[in-house]
Amino acid sequence: MPIVPDTPIARHGPLHLYAHTIGCQMNEYDTQRAQHILGAQGYTPTTDIRQADVIFLNTCSVRAKAEQKVHSFLGRLRRLKKDNPRLIIIVAGCVAQQLGPDLLRRFEHLDLVLGTRAIPSIGSLLQRVVSRSERLAHLPESEEEGWESLLCKGELTIPGVVAPVTIMQGCDNFCSYCIVPHVRGRERSRRSGAILHEIDLLTRHGVKEVLLLGQNVNSYGKGLEEGLTFTELLRRIHDRTSVLRIRFTTSHPKDLTESLMGAFAELPRLCRWIHLPFQSGSDRILRQMNRSYTAARYMSLIDRLRSLRPDMGLSADVMVGFPGETEEDFRQTMQLIAAIRFDNLFSFSYSDRPGTSASQLPDKIPADVKARRLQELQKLQMDIVLDKNRAEIGGQREVLVEGFSKQSDGNQLTGRTEQNRIVNFQGPVDLVGQLVTVRIHNAFQHSLLGERTGHDDCRWNEAGQPRTQS
Ligand code: SAH
Ligand code: SF4
Ligand code: F3S
Asked: Which terminal CB of the chain, N or C, has fewer other CB atoms within 10 Å?
């Protein structure tokens, strides 16, 4: 059965799709793919849930809170389905993968449950649901084919200047607290040819920056016949496609090789930015988390990156309240944060996940202690971020213009620096998709405000060719 039927499903007037994503960038990517596929089937996106013919919910189970959100969202949809029995409700993502057909039993108003590898089949499955009034759960063992051929046929319109590209699926690390390997399965790298092809197509659609996605991108290549490392993949993308900027996320400290660090100094199109979760500053906790590095090793990696590129942007994930975490362990985490001074930090409170080994550990930390530690940590980090943002004032930064700023009344553009800072400034719409130089005037917690300098002293010319090799 073709993934995209030749004719749109004819029901009543224009068809509307309401999509909602909970979870990580992998889920964002899958939602985008689902929207593209259903868009080709005649479904227009809507932000008004009451107007929807199809509701697509992409779910996350990384923390109990994320999973609770899914259950309450689904609960709220009961009423909508009652008012409009023709409404189709699809649940995808990690909760769908975890619970499978159970979700259909628990929520009788659900129509379609899609596992984490089933997105390319969404079109044909939706058609089955609509035409035969079936209720289905589809959890394939391996990623289904079809996405690239859709891109090739040019049936999809890729909006935006920045596009995510998955380079690997799953995770083999089994950090003791984490459910991801249980719901996303073993690590599987995509062939480099398919990745290059997708990036090539995206750039032809006007994409200027790609974000290479995976749970552990820097272990890319494991099990591939090509015998390619992640650094070699980056080089190929750099040398063989015309994309202006390359980023990747997420990296694991244990796989951060000297050659990958060297790439930040060698490849001008590779953004000077890395997201490198450290999780804890205590070696004792890191051992129990099964992270296979020490705090000192992590600090030495950061020192090395900064010696190669003093302008390197750094972000990370950290967790408080892992079972058995003492005040002393927590102090060590705070010390690491104060010593490194991250540009951005995502902080979480430990949450027991079913099937993980940490959930079996004794000495669970009480909720009030976790909340207090998280608050203390976030306060420290907010001060650091504001300080670092203020240090940008007076400087000039190269910004890739992504579109209009949401807060503005329509003439303020927004983009990002290589270090991933958001910069807003006044300018005409035709700058969208271009690299411009902005002088920074003001700094806030989450963004910078600036003014375009008269001359765009960027490293690329209008045709996207490098001016200099820095
Ligand atoms: N693959 C990435 C991120 C995975 S999930 C990595 O290895 O870094 C994103 C973040 O959620 C993790 O980095 C971790 O900080 C957090 N996280 C994962 N499991 C968690 C749990 N059980 N409780 C609280 N936070 C968790
Ligand atoms: Fe989870 Fe660890 Fe894999 Fe990240 S590396 S997805 S934290 S198991
Ligand atoms: Fe959540 Fe699944 Fe991503 S559990 S963090 S949506 S891989």
From this structure: C
